[in-house]
Amino acid sequence: MLVTEVLGELGYTAIEAADGAEGLNMLRSNAHIDLLVTDVGLHGGMNGRQMAEAGRVLRPGLKVLFITGYADSAVLSHGHLSEGMQVMVKPFSMEGLATRVRAMIAEA
Prior knowledge:
Elements: H1 2-9, H2 20-28, E1 35-39, H3 48-58, E2 63-68, H4 73-76, E3 85-89, H5 94-106
Parallel strand pairs: 1-2, 2-3
Helix pairs in contact: 2-3
């Protein structure tokens, strides 16, 4: 919820999902989505990495920012993230989040 609030304050329209399944349903919709921001650990049987991979099947090239409380390697799946995917490890500042989101959305 804090990330949604911060993104709203920055002028972005943020859509919040309660779990991975709901997030995936949003990715199936016609909503315009520039960037998926997801925690790695999600409720409902699907983790953030699984949701992002399924979302990229629906929306090839979807940019993804993973948020995690674990070391980068926990989400990298053997040290590799696909192009357009990045990780932020908690704790991080809201200014750091804002900078990363702006940069990722601005990437061609």
